[in-house]
Design a protein that fits this description.
388 residues; alpha/beta; Rossmann fold; 2 domains; seven-stranded parallel sheet; six-stranded parallel sheet; 15 helices; 13 strands; disordered C terminus
């Protein structure tokens, strides 16, 4: 039995936060691993973790430009480590590793860094994080093991894929109900995109592609997600303006920020996210789409080729709106192709990304850190691994 403390910012909600909520909700898949969570900002992540029934500890809003908030968060984490005695601490995000990793080091507790997104090693948070090497690192994909070297060239990397649970198919009545919420016809072919509102994730490319096929009847596009920061609001507004300029604003529906993404994907028909510059560390939403039975259209950037193959969708060159339009046209017009890729995607997601496989694998990786670390009880007063 090991107690694992996950440390994360918590101010936004994206792939990292979805992973943490999944680990909390599905903790019974590995009873030997007890998760707890320390987060800096109140918000949706804290609410969903508390709803899952796991211990959640607040460290206080932390802003680098205010040094007093750094010292306060560090003091609270140090006290938490003394009080809860975790066997291993995982820092999610370079920002967290940089600011709070040294506290874990000082407590002589095994420290793991979990890399979940693209990195260059040049951002201030990455350079700062490099000053506190972890005992080992976890990467969400093989692609990220190369990215990790920009921060930690000598740290062992272990791949643990994002554990994405199955998504239940909707009944016909439930499917119609979801579509009715936003005025989408029951028989429309719905193309969905669910992601953070930030450039690089291909929303502009998708809208350009849809503008070129506006003469094809019966499709609609759902943009699932809303702005969480001021810069995202500007981008969100630009997408709406682009849809209007292309004459497709009546067929592009903006759902905004949602907590029921799986339900919305289950009511769609195609998933399209043609990233043009953003390199997904894995792309959990691609797996969610496959779990929901949606063919996926994306680009050969980042870890996408580890997730999608010809049995599950289309991998295209980035920045090619014409190729996106061609792939969507083929899928819209060929229900049999959609059905074949739907079945292939479900099977691939179950084989590669099942929580029943990945969560126990996480336990085995964390045990490597615990077993390879000097006994903390001899120097910090913390309990030995496995003792309650």
């Amino acid at each position: 039995m090991i107690r694992v403390l996950h440390v994360a910012p918590g101010n936004l909600f994206g792939g990292i936060e979805t992973l943490l909520v999944t680990l909390a909700r599905l903790r019974d898949l590995c009873p030997s691993m007890e998760p707890e969570f320390a987060i800096c900002f109140e918000g949706r992540l804290q609410s969903e973790l508390e709803a899952a029934g796991v211990p959640v500890h607040g460290l206080g809003a932390l802003k680098v430009r205010y040094p007093n908030t750094i010292w306060r968060a560090r003091r609270r984490l140090a006290e938490l480590l003394r009080r809860r005695h975790p066997d291993v601490v995982i820092c999610h995000h370079a920002w967290t590793q940089a600011i709070l990793g040294p506290v874990v080091r000082a407590a002589n507790i095994p420290l793991v860094f979990w890399l979940q997104g693209q990195t260059t090693g040049r951002h201030w948070s990455e350079r700062w994080a490099a000053l506190t090497p972890p005992d080992l690192a976890i990467c969400l994909s093989h692609f990220l093991t190369t990215e990790l070297r920009t921060i930690y060239p000598d740290i062992a990397a272990h791949v643990v894929y994002n554990p994405v649970p199955p998504i239940a198919a909707l009944t016909d009545a439930a499917r119609r109900e979801v579509r009715a919420e936003i005025g989408t016809a029951p028989d429309a072919v719905v193309i969905a995109q669910a992601c953070r509102m930030e450039p690089g994730k291909g929303a502009r490319i998708l809208l350009d592609a849809l503008g070129s096929i506006r003469d094809i009847a019966d499709w609609e596009c759902w943009q699932i997600g809303g702005p969480q920061r001021a810069m995202e609001r500007e981008y969100f507004d630009a997408l709406r303006a682009q849809a209007a300029r292309l004459g497709i604003d009546g067929r592009v529906r903006f759902w905004g920020q949602r907590g029921d993404v799986a339900r919305l994907l289950a009511a769609a028909d195609i998933y399209c996210q043609p990233n043009d510059t953003f390199r997904e560390g894995l792309g959990a939403v691609f797996i969610e789409a496959m779990r929901a039975g949606l063919p996926v259209v994306t680009t050969r950037l980042g870890a996408a080729p580890e997730v999608i193959d010809e049995t599950a969708g289309f991998l295209l060159a980035p920045g090619d709106a014409g190729a996106v339009a061609a792939a969507l046209t083929e899928l819209i017009r060929d229900p049999a192709l959609r059905a074949r890729l739907s079945a292939g995607g479900r099977a691939r997601a179950e084989a590669r990304f099942s929580p029943a496989v990945q969560i126990p694998l996480l336990y085995e990786v964390l045990m490597k850190a615990v077993r390879g670390h000097p006994d903390p009880a001899s120097s910090s007063g913390c309990r030995q691994p496995g003792l309650l």
